[in-house]
Structure prediction request, 309 residues.
Amino acid sequence: MPELDDIDRRIIDRLQGGFPLCERPYAAAAESLGLEEGELIARLQSLLENKVLTRFGPMFQVERMGGAFVLAAMAVPEADWERVLAAVNALPAVAHNYRREHDFNMWFVLATETPAGIDAAVAAIEAATGLPVYAFPKEREYFVEMKLEARQ
Amino acid sequence: MMDELDRALVRATQAGLPLVPGPYEVLGREVGIPAGEVIARLQRMLETGVIRRIGAVPNHYAIGYTANGMSVWDVDEARIDQLGEQVGGLDFVTHCYRRPRRLPGWPYNLFAMVHGSSREEVLAKVEAIRALLGDACRGSDVLFSTRILKKTGLRLG
Prediction:
């Protein structure tokens, strides 16, 4: 795990949203963090390279674009894990995928441009893997705010 | 509503913003509009909620949240919406949704994601959710994640 210093932590904690929309946004963001523009860009570059950040940019809400975002799970036999994982991850519609401790041991999020795309993605995964996919579409969203303070 | 240029901007930024002093200018060249229009369009997408926010998306393992538990609950239908709002209001819950049950194997209809530095911390927080749900909850489980298998975010074709 890469070591983070105070400046990295400040960047992570304060730049999870609100990145400026102006001609020189890194300069504006850097100023509010007490940094130089070039230093902020270099730090972001290395945080991305070290995989401390998975992305730097806009977070989209697919439903507002007419698309769909659905959590789904599969119960994958251990002996078949690598084959199924490769087949699932190969699909561009699979945005996130996590291994979890349960009979349902693979949990992924499907993100598609249209609601019909979800059914197509589910069918494609079932055809490629030979295993059933259980979709858990959200019926109601009570809260979403994925902002966590850096602890390390 | 989004038009083709908005969609082109989504495609151009889904892997991330260019790490150069004038990122909106670079995006504008890519889709064929001036930087000012890129900014205006991103602003409008923020206002309409197409973009939730613009910034850093941390790998939560790398920033110290090595334990991530998806807590799932079988909650009385008549009370789930009121209780779901309360669970979502807890400061350690990052996502909270009502989802369909998949009987017989999956009786859970409330999902609340809890992050912490250890399993013990996550389990203590899960107990706080249990206390809040009280007798409206008939069963629960916590699914810890053991590996990120993929995390790319949205990919438009």
Q: What stands out?
A: Chain A touches chain B through 81 residues (CB under 8 Å). Helices of chain A lie at 6-14, 25-33, 37-49, 81-89, 115-129.
